[in-house]
Specification:
The chain is α/β, with parallel strands linked by helices. It contains five helices and eight strands; from the N terminus they run αββββαβαβαββα. Strand 7 and strand 8 form a beta hairpin.
């Protein structure tokens, strides 16, 4: 091999190793130090049920924003379902707000990836625009008083015990 090819491969290996180390050091959830009030919402689910943040107050709530066309959103849904199965009897709620899609889109997704937590629809994207996010998936943890405590930008393994412990610690 030429010297430049070997040097390029070594640089690539160093970059990969650095990237893996950086991901491992990445926090599970980003703290929101100001703890601003979470923007209110009232949305219909695909089953016609109304979901509002006000009705969830008094318990920690994981609020996820997602779409069926988003590969990282789809990838994290099974771990969210596993997290929900662990949290639903622990006084922690989980809700995943679909951004900009129809009931038919969500129903088709649920045929492939069944979940039992609420999936309200933000068809006009008015609710998602009120929350401090830059892309999908974005997930927030809201404390029992209705304040934003944590944010996760991008895919997470929601059934990670350390992550779940952070959320459980917010219970009153």
């Amino acid at each position: 091999m030429k010297h430049s090819t070997i040097a390029t491969l070594l640089l690539l290996l160093v970059a990969i190793r650095f990237n893996v180390a950086a991901q491992a050091a990445e926090p599970l959830l980003d703290s929101i130090p100001e703890r601003p009030p979470a923007p209110a919402f009232e949305l219909l689910g695909p089953d016609g049920t109304t979901h509002s943040l006000a009705a969830l107050q008094g318990k920690p709530v994981i609020v996820n924003f997602w779409a069926t066309w988003c590969p990282p959103c789809r990838a994290e849904m099974p771990s969210m379902q596993r997290a929900w199965e662990q949290l639903k009897d622990d006084g922690v709620l989980l809700i995943a707000i679909n951004v900009g899609e129809s009931k038919a889109d969500i129903d088709a997704f649920l045929a492939d990836v069944p979940v039992s937590f609420p999936l309200p629809m933000d068809e006009t994207m008015g609710v998602s625009q009120a929350w401090p996010m830059k892309g999908l998936p974005t997930t927030f943890v809201v404390d029992p008083e209705g304040r934003l405590v944590y944010r996760a930008q991008g895919e997470r393994e929601w059934d990670d015990p350390k992550l779940l412990d952070l959320v459980r610690a917010l219970r009153q």
